[in-house]
Amino acid sequence: MAWRVLLPVLMIGMVSCNRNSSLNTLPMNIASSRDHIRVEGSWRKIGGTGDATPVPNVFRIDCNTREMSCIENGAWIDPGYGNWLERWPFLRLLPSAEYQVIRWEDGILLAEHAYSNSDCTLRISIRDKKISRTWRGTRARGTDLDADKWMEEVLQ
Description:
mainly beta
């Protein structure tokens, strides 16, 4: 008798877990004040050879223009691993990434972050309300993992 209740619940759960890309995230938002910029949204790949940020995802970037730094926090739904019986999606909270602002003028902020296998440049345009980041693989820090890859993403 319990299987009559359990089976439909399991089926709904499996179907909904396999449709993560249909989840809606908040639209891109940008707010600025005298010394602070905050942007929120979801990264979408628009070019390159690197792996795209998993979808759905959500990120917040807080910049302090006086201290010339930005902190990026984010999360995405990880599809899980293994065969279909073991594959359960889960929320992956990412470690914070700190960017150093290299230029802030005319409403455009450029910041950089050095990962172990790539360099990332963040561009926030208050004027155009456009946010992008570009990844370039590097061998500079002793790893060849993604040295030949690049990617560009926009925040939506």
